[in-house]
Amino acid sequence: MIQPRPRTIPEATVARLAVYLRVLTSLADGGRTTVSSGELASAAGVNPAGLRKDLSHLGSCGVRGVGYDVRALRERIARVLGAERSRACVLVGIGNLGAALADYAGFGSRGFHFVGLFDASPARVGQSIGGLTVQSMAELEATVTATDASIGVIATPADVAQQVCDRLTGAGVRSILNFAPVTLVAPAGVDVRPVDLSVELQVLAFLGQQRAVPAEEVTA
């Protein structure tokens, strides 16, 4: 049985490091050489104390009174996240969402590239999206093995998502990003990250509703 790797950096911190990497990349592309903790924290949507705590997992990074070297910090975070090497991904489910993901050029700049697109619909098989041809589900396992794909993205209807997850993990995929509105069960050693857009919209609706409630009703 494959055991999960021990994580020396908390998962929530890893998620924020990815945001810092995005901000630093934007700053570097714009010609910035240094950035203060306050500026970086504001751009990332966190407080400076939280930023400094997150970066403490990387060792000494900044210089008091000067801030952070943009390129050096970007490279250090990229190494920690493994963003400096390309990771092969496969995507299953080429509906509207899946097609948009397959055609998004931003993944490549962050170290991810799709090596296979799959769909069960004969009408979608053979289509060209993002430079790849959509393949039939019958080719899934062979493609995962041939490309050594380590990440699978599921954008299928909920009723087939678990079956797709089982096939991906059976073929050797050890990380799954799930857009299907269902909770997946995966073997030990497989990381699953759910992205349920309807849940996120419901949370936003609730927060908006709370802001609209008069203060006297909240304290009553």
TrEMBL record:
Gene3D superfamilies: NAD(P)-binding Rossmann-like Domain, Winged helix-like DNA-binding domain superfamily/Winged helix DNA-binding domain
Binding locations of NAD(+): 93-98
Keywords noted in UniProt: Cytoplasm, DNA-binding, NAD, Repressor, Transcription, Transcription regulation
MF annotations from Gene Ontology: DNA binding; DNA-binding transcription factor activity
DNA-binding positions: 19-58
One Pfam family of this chain: CoA_binding
Subcellular location: Cytoplasm
GO CC terms of this entry: cytoplasm
Self-association and partners: Homodimer.
NCBIfam families found in the cross-reference section: PRK05472.2-1 (NF003992), PRK05472.2-2 (NF003993), PRK05472.2-3 (NF003994), PRK05472.2-4 (NF003995), PRK05472.2-5 (NF003996)
Entry function: Modulates transcription in response to changes in cellular NADH/NAD(+) redox state.
PANTHER family listed in its UniProt record: REDOX-SENSING TRANSCRIPTIONAL REPRESSOR REX, REDOX-SENSING TRANSCRIPTIONAL REPRESSOR REX 1
Family assignment from sequence similarity: Belongs to the transcriptional regulatory Rex family.
Protein name, entry field: Redox-sensing transcriptional repressor Rex
Organism: Blastococcus saxobsidens
